[in-house]
Amino acid sequence: MAKVGWGVIGAGGIADRRTIPEGILPAKNAKLVAVMDADPETAQTLSSKYQVPSYIRAADLLANEQVEAVYVASPTYCHKPQTIEAARAGKHVLCEKPLGLTIREAEAMLDECRKAKVNLGVGFMMRYNVYHQKIRSLIEKGNIGTVVFARAQLTCWYPPIEGAWRQDPKLGGGGALMDLTVHCVDLLEFLLGPVAEVGSLVERRVHAYPVDDTNAVMIRFASGAVGFVDCAFNIPDDASENVLEIQGSKGCIKGKMTIGQGPGGEVVQCLLKNAGGYSASQKREPVTYQPLALSVKNTYQSEIEAFSDSVLKAVPPPISGDDGLHNMKVVEAVKKSAKTGRFQKV
């Protein structure tokens, strides 16, 4: 099988923890050929670990002829210049979310990739969770009836850390909103379709850094369904279940820990052919939820294989730069709603 040669820009952090070992290395149609990190010590360590050339400048990695696609996993403020540099070098780009610091940055990235005729994808790997794909299928088939309400929750404990770029608004663009909420919004749109308008609260509740550590977003989807996203940097990991819940006129699907970096989670479903009769007394038998058991595949491996396949077949990636731009437009509406106290159309 043909394999796409991958270079990784910003190869420390999430790339070393997840995407390289879980995604690129086991992918059937990909191979790691180079890594780059601005820190020389990190670059050398990764070179020894993965047995590939390392660089401290993106330009040097992009000059490597074996590199056909790059995974940009650097801090958000680097996404625009590094993506544009890669596109001009003729490399396909899978960029981590959020695509850029602003909508204008994301648009510039898309324009350059179109000019260079290279693919631009964005790292919303949670779409590849097998449970999320199954839930989407159940919704599309009408098994849950008319979708009424959905919730996606993602929280963690992220205290002040010196030099942490996600805690600097100039480097990351925001806190929990830009790191966690973007994933949850994208996931709910993957399941339920496009967002029409949002209302939000974006707060700093616990931690003393200049970005949000708490946010809550109410969503009205174009379909008429209502959604709720709650994300935070200030809830202990052991207390978080990362809940996904979809309620419809024929039942409900509930998930725990499917939202996150891991490949699995737990999902139960209660799907009924009809709602039954009306009872003013509200007396009824206990609801019985059945577990949904699926064979798990790593989401990072699926992400890399899907993007590599798009390169090999010369077709657009399944999660495109346009998806990343749309996500940023939703997030900008969330920010505006938080400032104005009013719902904002997307």
Rounded mean pLDDT is 96
| Computed structural class | alpha/beta
Instruction: Please compute the radius of gyration using only Cα atoms.
Output: 21 Å
CATH class of the largest domain: Alpha Beta
Instruction: Label the overall shape.
Output: globular
Largest sheet: 9 strands, mixed
Summarize the amount of helix as a percent range.
Answer: 25-40%
As for the CATH topology of the largest domain, it is Dihydrodipicolinate Reductase, domain 2
What is the correct CATH architecture of the largest domain? 2-Layer Sandwich
The count of β-strands is 15
Order of helices and strands: EHEHEHEHEHEHEHHEEEEEEEHHE
Distance between the termini: 42 Å
Summed up, the domain count is 2
**Helical stretch count?**
10
Give the full name of the CATH homologous superfamily of the largest domain: Dihydrodipicolinate Reductase, domain 2
Report on the structure:
With 346 residues, this protein is an alpha/beta fold. The chain contains ten helices and 15 strands. The strands form two sheets. Strands 14-13-12-11-7-10-9-8-15 form a nine-stranded mixed sheet. A hairpin with a 2-residue loop joins β11 (243-248) and β12 (251-256). α4 (76-88) runs parallel beside α5 (103-116) and α8 packs across α10 (321-340). It is globular, with a radius of gyration of 21 Å. The termini are far apart.
